Amino acid sequence: MLIKDIMSKPPITVEASQSAYDAYLLMREKKIRRIPVMRHGKLVGIVTDRNIREAKPSSLAHLPEYASAEVLRETEIEKIMTKGVITVISDDPVEQAAVLMTQHKIGGVPVMEKDKVVGIITETDIFRLFTNLFGAEPGYFQVVLLSTEETRAAVMKVYERFSTHIRSIIFSPKYPEIVMVFKVLHGKSDTDAILDELHRCCFQVLDWHLFEATPVRVAVS
């Protein structure tokens, strides 16, 4: 899968000459933690919620909130932004972004097409892809199968039988399993039919899980 398929777009950007307070308000409004910084249409940096926090007066100063806001209003984004921005290309595989974010311990990177910012990919986008691939949401049925030459060859039979239901089939040369994810409309009856077909094709089912309900939220008093 390519970065352009899961990135957040259109990109939200700020100008280097704007105030840090502008960036702070935009982050609060859009519920984001990083914004590419532009100058004359070119990417020159990225400003993060951490940059904003570090630009504020220390809490040890015990200043009122309006005083912190005033400091941010008087500070240009260019003075606090992170320069030398790590970027990816929209046609790069998603794995490329994940590796870069892991190596550099960052939560997101701007996505480029030539010299134009076309989006941003964040750890949230990658987590969302991960949950989609593995069917970790209500209405999805995940089956883990033992991977052998015979079962790999039989996967196509299952795909032909359930092509309208299959969300993903995941192989990995590093692990002896195949993960198949199905979208089920009728809950238990659909899962029983899928399991029957897998057994008929001589798959060895190692584990399965039907995601039927949303998580229970516990109120903390």
Q: Count the E strands.
A: 10
| Count of DSSP-assigned helices | 9
Helix fraction bin: 25-40%
What's the name of the CATH homologous superfamily of the largest domain? CBS-domain
Describe the largest sheet.
Answer: 4 strands, antiparallel
Oligomer type: single chain
**What is the name of the CATH architecture of the largest domain?**
Roll
CATH topology of the largest domain: CBS-domain
Rounded mean pLDDT score: 87
Strand line-up of the largest beta sheet: 8-9-7-10
- String of helices and strands: HEHEEHHHEHEEHEHEEHE
Helix-strand category: alpha+beta
In total, the number of domains comes to: 2
Structural Rg: 23 Å
Dominant shape: elongated
Strand content: 25-35%
State the separation between the terminal residues, measured CA to CA.
43 Å
CATH class of the largest domain: Alpha Beta
Unreliable runs: none
Description:
Strands 8-9-7-10 form a 4-stranded antiparallel β-sheet, with helices on one face. A 3-stranded mixed β-sheet has the order 1-2-3. Strands 4-5-6 form a 3-stranded mixed β-sheet. The mean pLDDT is 87. It is an alpha+beta fold. The two termini are 43 Å apart. The longest helix is centred in the C-terminal third of the chain and has 13 residues, at 149-161. The chain folds into 2 domains: 3-129, Roll (CBS-domain); 135-211, Alpha-Beta Plaits (2-Layer Sandwich). It is elongated, with a radius of gyration of 23 Å. The protein contains 9 helices and 10 strands. Helices cover 38% and strands 26% of the residues.
